[in-house]
Write a structure and sequence with these properties.
The protein is 28% helix and 22% strand.
């Protein structure tokens, strides 16, 4: 009988201490998780085309040889006998129109070319 009392005392003590521990399963917060804001694309190049809109580039060079959209980005490619120009457009912030943020220039055989010289050669 003493063993039963001892077991009852231990069980009561365990229940009392367990109540102090708090809930074992956390309750979900009332606020829904929010997605992080889109990352702003900041140009790292410095040439005459950076910051230009798609329309402005079209007025400079005419119809592109390639017009590719992938995700949030767009690439226009212009080509001539001296060089090939790839211009990449991204919106600088949410709700803004896309602008040129990166430009690559190369010769038809694949060697690097200077962007501003290539752009001058391709202007209408």
């Amino acid at each position: 009988m003493a063993d039963n009392r001892r077991l009852a005392a231990i069980a009561g003590l365990a229940l009392t201490l367990g109540a102090c521990a708090g809930p074992a399963i956390p309750h979900p917060s009332a606020r829904a998780p929010t997605a992080p804001p889109p990352t702003a694309v900041r140009p790292v190049q410095n040439n005459a085309l950076i910051g230009s809109s798609v329309d402005a580039v079209g007025r400079m060079f005419g119809k592109p040889r390639l017009d590719i959209t992938e995700g949030a980005g767009r690439k226009l490619q212009f080509a001539g006998s001296r060089c090939i120009l790839d211009i990449y457009f991204y919106a600088p912030r949410a709700g803004a129109g896309p602008v040129a943020t990166h430009v690559d220039a190369r010769t038809p055989d694949g060697r690097n070319a200077e962007v501003n010289s290539c752009a001058e050669a391709l202007r209408r």
